[in-house]
Write a structure and sequence with these properties.
Layout (H helix, E strand, L loop, with lengths): L1 H4 L3 H23 L7 H17 L5 H13 L1 H8 L6 H12 L2
Helix pairs in contact: 2-3, 3-6, 4-5, 4-6
Length: 102
Amino acid sequence: MEKFKNLTESDYQISKDLEHDLIKNLDQINESNLPINSELGKLIFEQHQQWLKIFNDKYTKDYHLAMATLYETDKRFAKHYNSQSKTDVAATLTKIIRNYAK
């Protein structure tokens, strides 16, 4: 939480840009029926990883996996992502995280 309080304007803007690109890429992977282990799937994982690191400088793969579980079990997270997209991006993001954060 300390990191969030000390977020610079630049970091905030980067996080917003990453989130926008992440949603766009998740829509693209869903609409194109690409597999989650495609190059786009890897890019999505890396974008989400970078986004998490902005807010938590103690990032680990276990932390990333825990976020996937949270996205799946707490519908507020799914609603946040899906409300910005045309497809069920929360479910796709969860699958991508579980694939790459092994």
